[in-house]
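Late entry, nicotinamide-adenine-dinucleotide complex.
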Amino acid sequence: MSTIDLNPDTTTDDAVTELPTVPHWINGAAYPSTSGRVGDVYDPALGVVTKHVALADKAEIEAAIASAAAAFPAWRDTSLAKRQTIMFKFRQLLDDRKGELAEIITSEHGKVVSDALGEISRGQEVAEFATGLAHHLKGEFSEQVSTGIDVYSTKQPLGVVGIISPFNFPAMVPSWFFPIAIAAGNAVVLKPSEKDPSAANWLAELWKEAGLPDGIFTVLHGDKEAVDGLLTHPEVKSISFVGSTPIARYVYETGTQHGKRVQALGGAKNHMLVLPDADLDLVADAAINSGFGSAGERCMAISVVVAVEPVADPLIAKITERMAKLRTGDGRRGCDMGPLVTKVHRDKVASYIEIAEEDGATIVVDGRDVVPDGDPNGFWLGPTLIDSMPTSSRAYTEEIFGPVLAIVRVSTYEEGVKLINDGAFGNGTAIFTNDGGAARRFQNEIQVGMIGINVPIPVPVATFSFGGWKASLFGDTKAHGAEGVRFFTQQKAITSRWLDPSHGGINLGFPQND
Ligand code: NAD
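Prediction complete; structure with ligand written out below:
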């Protein structure tokens, strides 16, 4: 397979023609931008623009959706056996070549290569789930519900389905949706984040190599214009969105107003509750891994440790000891943590450290002082630990989405649970304890969609469904697992009579079973 198909001739501005432009992928081939609208794509560890990405206009949106709509009927009618063969091939190619994809992700997102490989593996799990989709697409059958009458149900694909994804998991988040959507017989139009667009094109090429018909996996690059195009187009039957809460709310409201089925996963502020009987070495490792992995740019990152006293002081000592050993730098150099995705985002995250300080918190470790193992122009911010975070501070109430871990001290389990339940978000949470009864009580009482018990990033495996509560999910269907199958199919119930000729003649009364 070739590397990403880059088109250097898509812009009119002399200054930008020197850099390649990531094209759309429409009807099974690279589709150079006709609009000339492009966005910048950075290498965050170098701090420079390395390429551009096409930003779709109306004509490109139409071309993408029209190609998917034209390809859909034949794919819908392709046998399950043939669809499954392609799914197996795709999964095998992904497994064989994931190293290539990881390097692409690191060069545009900044996360370290091992972490990029990790996200690909979690996405691959969904492709593996989809290789068995023939089983999940089975309907139900009831014989003789009335004399000579059988009732059965079937699950059919929706048609053209839209996926709109965030920057932080350019491979995994789209993979939560497209393997199931495709195996179920739909045609996918993926609108990836414009910050790290190339992973989507790489996946599109892989699908082609696996034998997927042209038009069934389309990549439409762009910004709000492309998103609005998908949300309002009558040919698009559903939207699967993942991103920040304000945009998730907008996507849910706009998509449903236009008659679409919408699942919109939003932002997060995940708390880890530490009870006094917890193993503090385990907790410190978990806090570091989940707080600073991927520079905190994970929707399941732990951003607040709720320490039930007297654990805060000994726990802070163990966390800071570990933080001193973390190496922040270029993700291609074997570092623990990479840069943030853009300068704007780095500055925004750093501003929250300032806000916390002004609001009276104690900065225990200040990531603004980091000396990175990388280019000085990279978008660096080191791991930061903040103690005694006031819960009235914007640094506590708002999602930071960076390597900033806050400690909030509480006196009791009940106080900790109330704090978590009072929060606006409900994506993930964790409890660390050796008391099974306390953990069981927590899983029952906590108002959050995904819970870890002595597990800091409780991301369910692909056979279960992924999604939070409250401002972390709009709509009533989560990603992948049984809910994913339900989202990407619509049911028909068929009532059938064949052999009994006596239908009772004319009778305008409501049919009764006999
Ligand atoms: P974002 O909301 O800025 O962007 C997400 C998508 O929406 C992108 O494709 C982007 O192009 C598009 N978009 C951005 N602004 C838009 C606008 N005004 N109108 C229409 N479309 C718009 O999110 P991000 O910064 O790319 O990703 C980080 C966010 O995603 C965080 O809030 C994180 O918590 C969240 N996230 C949530 C989950 C989850 O499962 N709940 C998973 C991953 C990321």
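The first strand starts at residue 21 and ends at 22. Will revisit in the morning.
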